[in-house]
Specification:
15% helix, UDP N-Acetylglucosamine Acyltransferase, domain 1, 2 domains, eleven-stranded mixed sheet, 346 residues, homotrimer, ten-stranded parallel sheet, alpha/beta, 39 strands, Udp-n-acetylmuramoylalanyl-d-glutamate--2,6- Diaminopimelate Ligase, Chain: A, domain 1
Amino acid sequence: MPEYTLEDLAAKLSLTLKGGNAKVSGLNTLEAAGPDEVSFLANPKYAPFLEHTRACAVIVDEAHADKVERALISKTPYLDFGRALALFTRKEGSFVGVSDQAYIDPQAELGEGCVVYPFAYIGARARVGKTCVIFSGAYIGEDAIIGDNCRLYPNAVVLSRVELGEGCELHPGAVVGSDGFGFTRPSPGSDAIQRIPQAGFVRLGKEVSVGSNAAIDRGALGPTTIGDETKIDNLVQIGHNVTVGKAGLVISQVGVAGSCRIGDRVTLAGQAGIAGHLKIGNDAVIGPQAGVAKDVPDGFQGGGSPLVDGQTFLRTLSLMPKLPDLFKRISKLEKELAELRGETDK
Amino acid sequence: MPEYTLEDLAAKLSLTLKGGNAKVSGLNTLEAAGPDEVSFLANPKYAPFLEHTRACAVIVDEAHADKVERALISKTPYLDFGRALALFTRKEGSFVGVSDQAYIDPQAELGEGCVVYPFAYIGARARVGKTCVIFSGAYIGEDAIIGDNCRLYPNAVVLSRVELGEGCELHPGAVVGSDGFGFTRPSPGSDAIQRIPQAGFVRLGKEVSVGSNAAIDRGALGPTTIGDETKIDNLVQIGHNVTVGKAGLVISQVGVAGSCRIGDRVTLAGQAGIAGHLKIGNDAVIGPQAGVAKDVPDGFQGGGSPLVDGQTFLRTLSLMPKLPDLFKRISKLEKELAELRGETDK
Amino acid sequence: MPEYTLEDLAAKLSLTLKGGNAKVSGLNTLEAAGPDEVSFLANPKYAPFLEHTRACAVIVDEAHADKVERALISKTPYLDFGRALALFTRKEGSFVGVSDQAYIDPQAELGEGCVVYPFAYIGARARVGKTCVIFSGAYIGEDAIIGDNCRLYPNAVVLSRVELGEGCELHPGAVVGSDGFGFTRPSPGSDAIQRIPQAGFVRLGKEVSVGSNAAIDRGALGPTTIGDETKIDNLVQIGHNVTVGKAGLVISQVGVAGSCRIGDRVTLAGQAGIAGHLKIGNDAVIGPQAGVAKDVPDGFQGGGSPLVDGQTFLRTLSLMPKLPDLFKRISKLEKELAELRGETDK
């Protein structure tokens, strides 16, 4: 693990150091930090912890800098905490070179500086860029193209003809390029199921992250596409011929059905489901467990099933538990009104 | 890749060719097809694209045949598109033979013409049929029985004593035969959890497909059963002792709890959940994200949580966002009625 | 498979045998049991099957003992059925020793009596306890600590620095210690996504079970923690820095977002989702598909999205399908009231 001082951190992160220098062994929360660790304040509600933290310094904004003995003053404390943490974070695995217990097809191409763990499989005509790391149990199919600096963690699977841009990472068990669910019942009541072959592929842009045990299906025709910088969490399902734009955040267990077009900078929160062939506009934010059954305009923010805007969603949520009471109120109204009509009819 | 002409396709698929012959390199959508590709019209809403497509021919029904220069006339254009596409679709992987980097137990039996990739594991007394393809990282447990023509994609796992019929495919990371969730708390408040051993197995019929990273648990006693032709999508969970009939379609991220009996030709849409010990009738169609908590009769079509018939579901969906307004209307009614009663009491 | 008699079972399980001795080949349901199998009655609704069962004996409570010829009398028939079944259940795999087709880093430590299958990977400085079983395709990262008697089923992944207590089992494809979803958009509309490194680890207590293709992320700082005896089902997602207490049951496809603190003896039913940073009290039971968006007190039982107590949930569920009718009733009330006001105004 590297060693830094507070002055090193201030210089590397372009922050202002208030207070004397000290050695730093790592980062930690305000509560858990020891005297050789740096902490941070990102959320003002944790400001009371500043008083008692044992951290040798805290990454804070200007407004809180005088609450601590030593401060690394930042306009964006959370982001600078992330940048500082990167200096102290070890990457998975230190295996070097290309294992002779791996299988690399004679027709495959491997760029300079790649690491290939034992039991990795690289198929015919696959082209792997420079300084990639292919962990044990990972599979790269025939004619696949892997950009420079990609990391395929243990048991990640890239099927034939899939393309990964530079700097992609596939977490353990992620599957990219399996067949879309191309099955159709020829007629109602038929016991036969016909397969529509899945002849397309998948193209990931640059710096795409795919979570553990997530699945991205190949297109039936042409590609399923994930844009640059888009980050996909664990156990997400992306159907065939879906397009996800750039810089998206697709949180755990989301399902996106076939042929959806998801815009740029979209956030899909955990367990949300998007029905097939829909268009989700740029910058949309879809809440957790939402069920999306129609197109969503640019900038939309909402949740629920059916999907409604955020304000309606919150009001509906708060009213749902009052439904039993509502039914009672209506029965009472009906009864009273009937009485009243009886009276006025007299 | 094979080469075909339009006349070849017409002959192979028993379609009528309208217009002259031409070479065909593949299939594509109406919008994306080039002059050596065949396209198709399955959904009438795309008919306007017929005018501008560059496809050399289009698979269409009789009614649209005169809209294009060359047509392959079909009564079922989508199905015939699928059949045509199959002629041009390459299967995953061209490895041949049995790798000496695989592990095959001396007591395992391997049928004629099997392909076994490096790093596949085949356990003692497993019996693998003819012309199966076992990809790298796949695991076949002891005493498992794999029918002819099965394909176990990379890292697919078949645990001991599981049985697969002919022509099954397990997509990457699919797990068949892991332990059911046989855990029970002996008494409320107890910190101990007792395990009920999972002593059964799984039996898949013929031509069953299991999606990437899906999980099918073995029975506690006896089998978990999936019927012939049933297709299971990615990330689906099938609990212990479930029975799924034939020709079912179980879409991505569905969860079926233990001991359910699902009929024949059932469709379970994405992210639906079925509680334990329920019976779902033949030909039922359950909508996406549905929560099924009681038995469902034959032919039922519906959705929602709780599950209701399709018509009620759609009406309820449209009314949900009007709930806040409804509460206001009722408060107004109550107030007006109170006023009125005040008046009439006078 | 071992052989037992009814007297053996009675002695081993401390049950009272009513009726003569007999050989026992295994256990089965009342309906399916043959004359050399033992069955059980756990749910009184199956009592009518006692009359016709072919089982040589039935594990029953005192009250039902005279309904069968031979009984193993138990105060907790289901639990004793589980204990009996354990005697007849074969564990997955009988490979012995350490395969020379596995990769074991020279700096790794392996306890006595471990079984390591071909194609398992054990990284530098990993410490594996005694009598562990590491199946093919399993990965143990650098500096990981695996307690005694752990089982890592095929393709299970334990990333670097993760700690497993004694007796843990990871089912096929389970991933423990992958990066948390530490991604943040620096500002709205930004195309850049910043990574917050995930520098922590995961600590599983004793006897923890993790289901097939489940994913447990490492902490951003410090551990994600799963308590002793907690059992996690297939396809579950546990986010970074989550704490789950002891003896929890987390059912299939549940998602727990980052930094949640789940108490002891909590049950989370299938497909439920817990938003980030929430506290779920001890002994809480959360229903299937529930959406939890605020803290939950000790002992709470409920369901729905939003989460409500069990009674409100059931009533709301039953009222939902009546919403269309409710809207009609209100329109009628409004009309009648308007008429009445018209009359009384006259």
